[in-house]
Amino acid sequence: MESTFTCTGVFEKVGDWYIGYVEELPGANTQGKTLEEVRENLREAVELILTANRELAEKELAGKDVIREEIKVSV
User: Fold this and answer.
1) Which of 32, 46, 71, 72 could in theory staple to 38 by disulfide, Cβ–Cβ 3.0 to 4.6 A?
2) With the CA atoms of 4, 58, 56 and 37 taken in that order, what torsion angle do they form, in degrees rounded to the nearest 10?
3) 17 to each of 23, 29, 67, how far by Cα in Å?
4) Would you say residue 32 has pLDDT above 80?
């Protein structure tokens, strides 16, 4: 199942580096020499976290009678 997740990336220049993190997803953070590099690294970090969390949930729910549905939230 593929879906779109929108979140807020925060980027800060620290010396010669950029750091970036996602406000809504603890653990999603990275660094890079350029702003474009840190943006790409952060997209990859978010994708890996969401994929890993989904895989863990699927394993836990295997064989159970569950209902899965998309939930949209506006903040």
Assistant:
1) 32
2) -20
3) 19, 13, 44
4) yes
